[in-house]
Recover the amino acids of this structure.
């Protein structure tokens, strides 16, 4: 059963304890509100201001699990705080561990400060959870996929548009990296895991994957540099740095270019151009 008073009080306290800079928002001038404004929280949580305001006033409909998950992420809650919020709303908390998509506050704070570089937060299966605006400008919105297509490793073998993002000379290495990475995750997570499900799908749908899988490679990695091909600015050579959250198995990937290089100039141009107008061709996969 929902605890409306407890839910309202908890939401107000968390909102008032956060400052705009804590969640990647500009402070602005003449700010009088203690903490965040309700409309700012609503934007962070991808809900209407009216809906959020009613929750703080102990009113409105019973929020769904999906809505509570969105609020927990928008308020940068820890896992303990997230679980408490779910219980106040009358729901059982989601599972913790490798299947959780709740991003830790520390990783989010780091991500929120990366306003001038391509960056993304991904799961261990390569599913994009968050992208910076410049990340969207570089690769398109990769958070929009559903089903198996959320995994870039799956898309690599099933969607030609995904391959068009990368330099053709590097395609064989990408094939080996994605295959070896999935082999590692299947072994680590075991039968019945999401990794095992992706394996079954790819064995059925991609001859290229079956050939690479039969090579039994493990531990294949990039050399720290990825070469992208953008439809408007052309080729870019970017260094990829990775920050791992071991508790959630999430990775923050940050792409940078050598200052003064041609790729650095192209990133600056991308920042002006903004998000890609031409979306990738992949469609949601019903599997």
């Amino acid at each position: 059963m929902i605890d409306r008073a407890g839910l309202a009080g908890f939401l107000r306290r968390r909102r008032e304890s956060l400052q705009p800079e804590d969640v990647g928002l500009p402070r602005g001038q003449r700010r009088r509100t203690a903490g965040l404004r309700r409309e700012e929280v609503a934007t962070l949580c991808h809900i209407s201001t009216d809906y959020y305001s009613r929750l703080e006033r102990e009113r409105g409909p019973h929020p769904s699990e999906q809505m509570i998950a969105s609020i927990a992420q928008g308020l940068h809650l820890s896992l303990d705080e997230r679980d408490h919020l779910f219980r106040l709303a009358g729901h059982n908390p989601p599972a913790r561990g490798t299947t959780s998509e709740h991003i830790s506050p520390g990783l989010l704070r780091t991500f929120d400060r990366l306003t001038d570089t391509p960056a993304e937060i991904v799961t261990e299966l390569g599913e994009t959870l968050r992208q910076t605006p410049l990340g969207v400008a570089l690769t398109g919105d990769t958070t929009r996929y559903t089903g198996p297509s959320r995994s870039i490793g799956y898309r690599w073998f099933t969607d030609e548009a995904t391959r068009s993002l990368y330099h053709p000379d590097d395609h064989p290495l990408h094939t080996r990296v994605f295959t070896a990475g999935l082999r590692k995750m299947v072994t680590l997570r075991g039968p019945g895991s999401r990794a095992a499900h992706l394996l079954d799908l790819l064995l059925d749908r991609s001859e290229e994957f079956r050939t690479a899988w039969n090579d039994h490679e493990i531990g294949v990695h990039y050399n720290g540099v990825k070469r992208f091909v953008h439809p408007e600015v052309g080729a870019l050579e970017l260094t990829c740095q990775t920050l791992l959250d071991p508790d959630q198995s999430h990775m923050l990937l940050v792409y940078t270019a050598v200052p003064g290089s041609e790729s650095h100039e192209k990133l600056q141009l991308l920042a002006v151009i903004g998000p890609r107008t031409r979306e990738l061709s992949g469609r949601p996969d019903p599997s």
In short: The CA atoms of residues 128 and 143 lie 5 Å apart. Residues 171-189 form the longest helix (19 residues). The longest strand covers residues 234-245.
